[in-house]
């Protein structure tokens, strides 16, 4: 076998270097996608977890409360038995004015008391913080990590401009931390300030985000948790840092799960490229194989030879894919991090590591992908009869298989996938995987015969419109059905992916935009913070009166959202003055109606829940939602279930009066302002701005601006998916190039004869380009229905499983339009080199025969 | 036409279809291989010429140059007065369409096309309308005696039949010059004789100029004139022995 590999395979590889590289590229592309996505995903999740861990330092427990813990709590905690140290913390992500430095995580701590909790790495001569009192005396004081300071060009005493809610503020470096423990959190993009300065900087009022607790030696975490929970009551949450990290990881897991689909697709498309390449390699070497067989090689030996080649290619491709994957993953991570920061207000440190586990998985995937891809061709190679060595002239294998059973099996698989998607036998990731697997197999089975049928039907048309190049292309496509259907398969799968994902994104966007048109009907939105999910600053409730008093203002509603844990998920509890809101908003009901909702919310302390909340927790009209309030658990009966997209985890809505009564917290996220008819919202905006200026941060957007902003947030969410769509187009490109290069190489002799018979180089080149266009067209034709199915699947069962939102189907016309423009371009470009090669075939060399 | 001429010289009054002067063809490989080392000859319209010589003597190379499939390293190749050596590949292709057709030893039919489509191929490449092409294909298929095999695939035909399809394909464009590289090389002697007879009758009926490379002295004797090559040079040029059929 070694001998055969060295002498046959290696010499083939050397003689057909371009083709070998293309085969390798198939593996590399698949593995690269997988490993880059996986690496970035892991880094994101681990980064989030480890940031929580590192920032926690020696703290064993963290005490939090919805809306922040009041300052007085620290005093109470300190005097409890079993507590060694407590330290208040405020956490906030800010962006330096020099954006290229990346987001900075700001930690506000009580520096005097905090050394019990965290190690600041102040050793060395210049390292120490000269004077803690000086640090505290100046409110603009901050500590940075050495690493960040170096990148930002900061030294002790110089200052850095950062964007905070109230505008751009300068902070001055008073000391530098060595990169160990705590200072490694968030990739070193860390800024430590005094916790009271942070209250002022981020408008937290007299509250902290949490209080870190270190227990006395001998007190277990379980004992500590129990004791604290008991003394503090249900309004407070007492958790270990690890658990907080887990919750954050779970929140972004939803987001990262989408990428698994992308990497699965990239891999399967890689498999097709490999399949194609091996198929051709077998065809090209029929005579060699025949000779081998004539010389005594067994069919098994032949098969093993090809599988051994696949093994080598798989290993090589896996290794290369790992390396290129790591290169891409950093960029991917940054992009993912921006999305999670925008959508969830969470971000981890920005460093990717190629872990041994990922290396192993990637290599394994490369191997498996190439073995799967090479299996069929290897088998058909082993079936080549020794007489082929002596056959002259017939250089093509005839494929004649019965297509009936194949079509039947394909239809059965697709039907199975659809049935599975519609039923609820399996759920979550298992559902996605099994449906995609079944559907994928069905497609693969169907694409061959279908593409052949389409090609046969297209033949006369091609001849009609391109009298000289048409028959050549259609003949070449039909002449080797395996090669063309392999390419069409790769094309159709990647286009299915593009259309499906595009359709899904489009539907989501459209649904949310329509919903916003129903819900966001007021004229102006007054916010203190640009971040929706993790506001940096909340207004006092009294601001409402000030705004209402301005001329031209008709109504003001105070919207407040908190995000408590509910049965293991972070749901949203929103409250607003329902009486005025319900006059201007159009609701869409899944259960209940407007009249009973009005009555229930306003007069009976009932709540409305979203449809995904209802699906997720099985609570509907007639049930009660138990919510944790500072005064204990309160049961809110459900009066209506709404189609609403406020949160992908589920939301509960209350009237503001009810919220105020139970939560005793009058702060406000957003004031919704409606102006009196005929008044210019711009004027009112100026008036509000003037009123609030100097006292509160104020971001005032018109309805249009506000919607655009949310639209941008949605786009950010999908930005990374879009990259994978581009990747699919890239794979389509690669597929066409491979297929055509192979086609040209296989037909060198035919092309030579054609030229001898009077074909012009231009004619030959045109026929190759036409071939590429036809491949793309047939791929698209097959992808249209398949992509539609896939999109429906994503919008229906998948969206439901991950967000609880049921999306009405919306055909991805925009994506289709883009494809109709992009595909001919892509195939035209892809055909460039093969066409030139074909046109340059030398007649004299081509017609030589062995 | 030139029956019985003992020392054959092309008749001055006949227009020259082919005029090669001082043609050299060499390949620059690790060492320089000289396939043709200065060949000068001319062939008049309506001649039927055989080229013989040991393997490697340059026969195929010469034939390829005559048809403009390749260009000489030096010297000139005039076909119907046009110097192919000075033309671009595209010009040569266009020229070939109108003036030259080929027959190969291994037939070189398109395995996926039916006989009818194979024969029509040169016409379709030249942009002849389907209707007209169809009629001409019928005619040449009748000429080679294959009208009842028009819808077969090449694989379903015998070697002799395949070569007749190739001949039909060569005839369909009515090119005045037909080049054949060992047309009987793959056939047994009976089939070979049939092919030769067919070529001979075409030559007689259409007056096509035929240049044929062959190893077979019987095939050579079917021609009017015999050119012998050795080491890339003309060793002998004269009337074919027994050219009196
Ligand atoms: N593409 C090429 N590259 C290098 N050398 C070549 C090439 N084509 C032909 N030759 C050389 O030119 C010489 C003449 O070759 P040619 O094919 O014309 O011989 P031939 O007389 O047709 O032989 P045969 O009877 O075997 O077909 C040979 O020595 C051959 O090796
Ligand atoms: Mg030869």
From TrEMBL, chain A:
Membrane topology: Multi-pass membrane protein
Segments forming domain ABC3 transporter permease C-terminal: 261-386, 724-839
Taxonomic source organism: Geomonas propionica
Domain of life of the organism encoding this protein: Bacteria
Subcellular location: Cell membrane
Pfam annotation, one family: MacB_PCD
InterPro entries: ABC3_permease_C, Lipoprotein-release_system, MacB_PCD
Keyword check for ATP-binding: no
Protein family according to the UniProt entry: Belongs to the ABC-4 integral membrane protein family. LolC/E subfamily.
Domain MacB-like periplasmic core as annotated: residue spans: 20-228, 486-690
Segments passing through the bilayer: 264-283, 304-328, 358-382, 403-422, 486-506, 716-744, 764-784
Keyword Membrane attributed: yes
Principal location: membrane
Name this polypeptide is given: FtsX-like permease family protein
UniProt cross-references to PANTHER family, sorted A to Z: LIPOPROTEIN-RELEASING SYSTEM TRANSMEMBRANE PROTEIN LOLE
Any coiled-coil regions, as ranges: none
Keyword line: Cell membrane, Membrane, Transmembrane, Transmembrane helix
């Amino acid at each position: 076998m070694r001998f055969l590999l060295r002498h046959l395979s290696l010499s083939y590889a050397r003689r057909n270097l371009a083709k070998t590289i293309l085969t390798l590229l198939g593996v590399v592309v698949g593995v690269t996608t997988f490993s880059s996505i996986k690496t970035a995903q892991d880094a994101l999740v681990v980064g989030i977890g480890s940031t929580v861990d590192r920032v926690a330092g020696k703290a064993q427990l963290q005490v939090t409360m919805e809306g922040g813990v009041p300052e007085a709590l620290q005093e109470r905690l300190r005097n409890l038995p079993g507590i060694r140290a407590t330290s208040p913390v405020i956490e906030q992500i800010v962006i330096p004015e020099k954006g290229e430095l990346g987001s900075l995580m700001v930690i506000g701590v009580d520096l005097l008391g905090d050394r019990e909790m965290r190690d600041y790495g102040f050793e060395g001569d210049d390292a120490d913080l000269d004077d803690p009192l000086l640090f505290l005396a100046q409110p603009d004081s901050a500590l940075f990590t050495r690493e960040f300071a170096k990148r930002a060009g900061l030294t002790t005493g110089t200052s850095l401009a950062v964007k905070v809610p109230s505008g751009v503020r300068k902070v001055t470096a008073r000391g530098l931390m060595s990169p160990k423990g705590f200072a490694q959190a968030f990739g070193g993009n860390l800024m430590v300030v005094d916790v009271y300065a942070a209250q002022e900087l981020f408008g937290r009022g007299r509250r902290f985000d949490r209080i870190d607790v270190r227990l006395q030696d001998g007190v277990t975490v379980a004992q500590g948790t129990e004791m604290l929970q008991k003394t503090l009551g249900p309004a407070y949450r007492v958790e270990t840092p690890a658990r907080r990290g887990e919750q954050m990881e779970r929140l972004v897991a939803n987001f990262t799960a989408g990428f698994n689909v992308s990497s699965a697709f990239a891999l399967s498309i890689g498999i097709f490229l490999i399949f194609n390449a091996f198929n051709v390699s077998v065809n090209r070497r029929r005579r060699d194989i025949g000779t081998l067989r004539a010389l005594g090689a067994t069919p098994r030996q032949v098969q093993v030879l090809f599988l051994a080649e696949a093994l080598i290619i798989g290993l090589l491709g896996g290794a290369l894919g790992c390396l290129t994957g790591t290169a891409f993953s950093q960029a991917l991570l940054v992009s993912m991090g921006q999305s999670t920061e925008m959508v969830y207000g969470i971000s981890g440190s920005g460093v990717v590591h190629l872990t041994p586990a990922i290396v192993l998985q990637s290599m394994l995937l490369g191997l498996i992908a190439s073995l799967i891809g090479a299996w069929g061709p290897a088998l058909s190679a082993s079936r080549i009869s020794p007489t082929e060595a002596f056959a002259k002239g017939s250089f093509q294998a005839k494929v004649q298989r019965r297509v009936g059973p194949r079509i039947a099996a394909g239809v059965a698989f697709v039907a199975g996938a659809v049935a599975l998607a519609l039923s609820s036998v399996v759920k979550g990731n298992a559902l996605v995987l099994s449906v995609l697997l079944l559907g994928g197999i069905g497609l693969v089975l169907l694409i061959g015969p279908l593409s052949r049928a389409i090609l046969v039907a297209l033949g006369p048309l091609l001849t009609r419109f391109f009298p000289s190049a048409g028959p050549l292309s259609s003949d070449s496509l039909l002449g080797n059905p395996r090669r063309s259907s392999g390419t069409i398969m790769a094309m159709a799968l990647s286009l299915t992916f593009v259309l499906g994902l595009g359709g899904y994104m489009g539907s989501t966007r459209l649904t949310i935009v329509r919903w916003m048109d129903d819900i966001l009907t007021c004229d102006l939105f007054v916010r203190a913070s640009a971040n929706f999910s993790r506001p940096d600053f909340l207004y006092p409730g009294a601001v409402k009166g000030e705004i209402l008093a301005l001329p031209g203002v008709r109504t003001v509603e105070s919207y407040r959202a908190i995000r408590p844990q509910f049965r293991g998920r972070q749901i949203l509890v929103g409250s607003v003055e329902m009486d005025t809101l319900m006059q201007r908003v159009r609701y869409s009901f899944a259960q209940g109606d407007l009249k009973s909702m009005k009555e229930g919310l306003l007069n009976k302390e009932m709540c409305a829940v979203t449809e995904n909340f209802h699906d997720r927790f099985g609570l509907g009209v007639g049930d009660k939602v138990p919510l944790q309030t500072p005064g204990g658990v309160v049961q809110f009966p459900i009066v209506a279930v709404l189609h609403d997209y406020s949160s992908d985890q589920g939301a509960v809505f209350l009237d503001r009066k009810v919220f105020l009564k139970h939560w005793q917290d009058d702060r406000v996220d957003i004031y919704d302002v409606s102006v009196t008819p005929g008044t210019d919202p711009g004027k009112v905006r100026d008036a509000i701005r003037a009123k609030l200026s100097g006292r509160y941060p104020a971001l005032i957007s018109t309805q249009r601006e506000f919607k655009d902003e949310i639209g941008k947030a949605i786009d950010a969410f999908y930005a990374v998916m879009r990259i994978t769509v581009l990747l699919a187009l890239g794979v389509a490109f690669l597929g066409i190039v491979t297929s055509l290069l192979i086609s040209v190489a296989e037909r060198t002799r035919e092309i030579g004869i054609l030229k001898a018979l009077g074909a012009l180089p231009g004619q030959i080149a045109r026929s190759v380009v036409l071939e590429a266009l036809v491949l793309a067209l047939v791929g698209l034709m097959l992808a249209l229905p398949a992509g539609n199915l896939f999109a429906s699947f994503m919008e229906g069962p998948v969206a439901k499983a991950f967000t609880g939102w049921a999306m009405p189907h919306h055909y991805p016309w925009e994506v289709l339009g883009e494809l109709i423009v992009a595909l001919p371009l892509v195939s035209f470009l892809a055909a460039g080199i093969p066409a030139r090669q074909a046109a340059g075939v030398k007649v004299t060399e081509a017609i030589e025969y062995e | 036409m030139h029956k019985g001429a003992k020392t054959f010289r092309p008749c001055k009054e006949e227009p020259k279809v082919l005029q090669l002067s001082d043609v050299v063809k060499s390949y620059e490989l690790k060492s320089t291989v000289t396939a043709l080392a200065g060949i000068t000859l001319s062939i008049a319209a309506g001649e039927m010429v055989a080229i013989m010589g040991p393997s490697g003597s340059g026969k195929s190379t010469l034939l390829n140059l005559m048809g403009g499939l390749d260009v000489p390293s030096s010297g000139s190749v005039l076909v119907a007065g046009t110097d192919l050596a000075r033309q671009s590949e595209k010009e040569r292709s266009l020229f070939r369409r109108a003036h030259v057709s080929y027959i190969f030893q291994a037939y070189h039919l398109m395995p996926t096309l039916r006989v009818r489509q194979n024969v029509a191929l040169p016409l379709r490449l030249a942009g002849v309308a389907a209707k007209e092409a169809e009629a001409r294909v019928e005619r040449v298929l009748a000429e080679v005696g294959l009208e009842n095999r028009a819808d077969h695939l090449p694989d379903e035909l015998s070697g002799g039949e395949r070569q007749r399809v190739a001949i039909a394909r060569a005839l369909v464009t009515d090119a005045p010059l037909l080049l054949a590289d060992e047309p009987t090389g793959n056939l047994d002697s009976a089939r070979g004789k049939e092919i030769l007879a067919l070529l001979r009758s075409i030559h007689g009926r259409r007056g096509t100029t035929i240049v044929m490379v062959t190893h077979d002295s019987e095939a050579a004797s079917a021609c009017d004139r015999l050119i012998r090559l050795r080491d890339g040079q003309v060793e002998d040029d004269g009337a074919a022995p027994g050219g009196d059929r």
